[in-house]
Amino acid sequence: MSIAVLQQPGEAPGEAPGPGRPALWRGLMAAPDGRVGVGLTVAMLLLIVFGPLAAPYSPTAINLAPANQPPSFEHLLGADHLGRDVFSRFLWGGRSILAIPLMAVILTYATAGLLSLVATYRGGAVDLVVCRFFELMMSLPALLKILLLVAAFGPTTGVLIVAIAITNMPGASRVVRGAVLGEIRADYVQAAQARGEATLSVVVREILPNVLGPVAADFALRITWGIIALSTLSFLGLGVQPPEADWGLMIQESRSSLQKAPLITILPAMAIAALSIGLNLASDALVRHVTSQGNGRR
């Protein structure tokens, strides 16, 4: 009696499934920069998620009596120009600087990414129109697009998310298009087409799982870019607005007291740098892992 072996989409005949391939986690941790990136990212995520639980004061509580005070037992990192506890504002300040770029990139891939995925598979006039539309969007500088949207509609959280998402759409579209073009002639796609499966079924069930690697790497890189863009906007006064606690806003507010209280500027700047570097190193390691896996299957 013969036993049929089920073959996964994109898997070469006779190739051992799952356990025979290096796990994604092992691939990330194999390189030194991958370990550093994952370590920094995890450390900053723990700080952002659990830091507010350790904040001794409200991040927006104003007390003019101890304004611009140096570190003390009462205020571990001192007080800013409005007497707000710097340590509490620092512990709360990472939430917006991660949440807004994260939601923006999710919106980017839920719209432009999915649209490019379907359009590239369909080809023809649909693909041409979508391609030219995103190329037109790419002709405008990224920061200029954000500044125009924020200046026109105001620096609210929703506008910031949409502005960063729109800016990311052309690049994300190109990444998705390139990944789909590499899979569109694969045997498993042609087999699904021969079975008469609908376009959406082929795209979601067959192509999408096989392009998640490069998409995930690009996803992390775009979050890094979003963090830097949001920090720049906050520094210019067009990002997160007072009295909210935000690392970029803390840097902007503490410019006048840099010599008297440098920690108010240095600490959030170091946190932004650590989060950005961690995500960048982790995404670079992910790109190398996905590339090596792809070359190994050829």
UniProtKB/TrEMBL annotation:
Keywords: Cell membrane, Membrane, Transmembrane, Transmembrane helix, Transport
Entry superkingdom: Bacteria
Name the record gives this protein: ABC transporter permease
Protein location: Cell membrane
Membrane topology according to the record: Multi-pass membrane protein
One GO-annotated biological process of the protein: transmembrane transport
Protein family (similarity comment): Belongs to the binding-protein-dependent transport system permease family.
Classification via SUPFAM superfamilies: MetI-like
Transmembrane region(s): 36-55, 97-121, 142-166, 219-240, 261-282
Any one GO cellular component localisation term in the record: plasma membrane
Pfam families membership: BPD_transp_1
Broad class of where this protein is predominantly found: membrane
InterPro entries: BP-dependent_transpt_permease, MetI-like, MetI-like_sf
Boundaries of every ABC transmembrane type-1 domain copy: 94-283
